[in-house]
Design goal:
elongated; mainly alpha
């Protein structure tokens, strides 16, 4: 069961890392301000999910050392902040007229 979770978290980390890099590239290459904001907010969402998945993998992979628990908690908090900011910005830029 733990091996399956490791593979799932690993795959999710790779997918969100790829999507984060893709949206970052698209955000930097576009000249339209609305699309730039949408791509940047999608990058934040993917990065937040990636940090949450890294924290989950860290919690599953290693035993409960206090340093690893603190680092995992920091990754979860940073990931939640990125996720929240990305969702908020995405709703803002999605409402702007084209």
């Amino acid at each position: 069961m733990v091996d399956a979770l490791e593979w799932v978290f690993g795959a999710l980390i790779i997918v969100t890392c790829f999507l984060s890099a893709l949206n970052s590239f698209r955000s930097r290459r576009t000249s339209d301000g609305r699309l730039r904001g949408l791509y940047a907010s999608r990058m934040n969402i993917c990065m937040g999910l990636m940090l949450i998945f890294i924290a989950g993998l860290l919690m599953i992979l290693f035993t409960g050392s206090s340093v690893k628990v603190v680092i995992g908690a920091l990754f979860i908090l940073l990931g939640l902040f990125n996720l929240f900011a990305g969702l908020r910005n995405h709703s803002h830029f999605a409402r702007l007229p084209q």
